[in-house]
Structures are given as C-alpha cells and as structure tokens.
Amino acid sequence: MAIKSKCVASDGKRVMTTEELKKWLKKFDTDKDGRISKEELRQAIRSTGGRFATFKSRRGLRSADVNQDGYIGEEELDNLVEFAQKYLGVRIIHF
Predict the structure, then answer these.
(1) How far apart, in whole angstroms, are the C-alpha atoms of residue 51 and residue 7?
(2) What torsion do the CA atoms of 8, 13, 18, 20 make, to the nearest 10 degrees?
(3) Which of 9, 22, 23, 95 has the most CB atoms in a 10 Å sphere around its CB?
(4) How far is CA 18 from CA 13, 62, 84, in A?
(5) CA gap 17, 92 in Å, rounded
(6) Which residues pair with 93 in a beta bridge?
(7) Where exactly are the structural domains of the chain?
(8) Which class for 16: exposed (0-12), middle (13-18), buried (19 or more C-beta within 10 A)?
(9) Which keywords annotate this record (predicted)?
(10) pLDDT tens digits for 4-28?
(11) Can you tell me the distance from the alpha carbon of 48 to that of 80, in angstroms, rounded to the nearest whole number?
C-alpha cells in the first residue's frame, strides 16, 4: 500500500494534496476506529520503504497527537502534514 501519486517532483518526492495524504493514511486504519495508532502509522511508514519506521512512528505520533490519547484522530490528521513532508518523502501542495 505504498503512496501512489501521479506526480513526482524532481527531488523524488511524491506531490499530493492534504486530502490525498489523509485518504492514503486512512487505508492503514486497520481496526476502522477512525484513528491512526502508532502501529498503524509505523505500517504506513514501512510501506513507503522508509527506514527507522518505529522511531519515525513514535515521532509522528508525538508531533500530531495534540490531546495525547495515543492516537491521531480525524481532527489531528492535519498535524501530520509537516511530518509527512519531512519523513515520508511527500510534498504537500495547496490549491
């Protein structure tokens, strides 16, 4: 379930919108509770071929989980944009 984006920038990063990123992340919500757990985020990072998935998933959860409940809820997904650009090889474009 790697990130499938039609556009790839000259630096090799996949170009996508925030909505496309959210849709892709929701595919890893294996228990369908509407939230992304650390393990689900780790699986998402692994699917990109990313290294150090456990470390990055911890860091991503910490950066996005505003209410500190251990999950990234729908309202917190926007907080993952910066993380995704840094660690998932994604460039987010805004229309």
Answers:
(1) 22
(2) 50
(3) 22
(4) 14, 19, 10
(5) 5
(6) 17
(7) 35-93
(8) buried
(9) Calcium
(10) 545 776 667 788 898 998 998 999 9
(11) 15
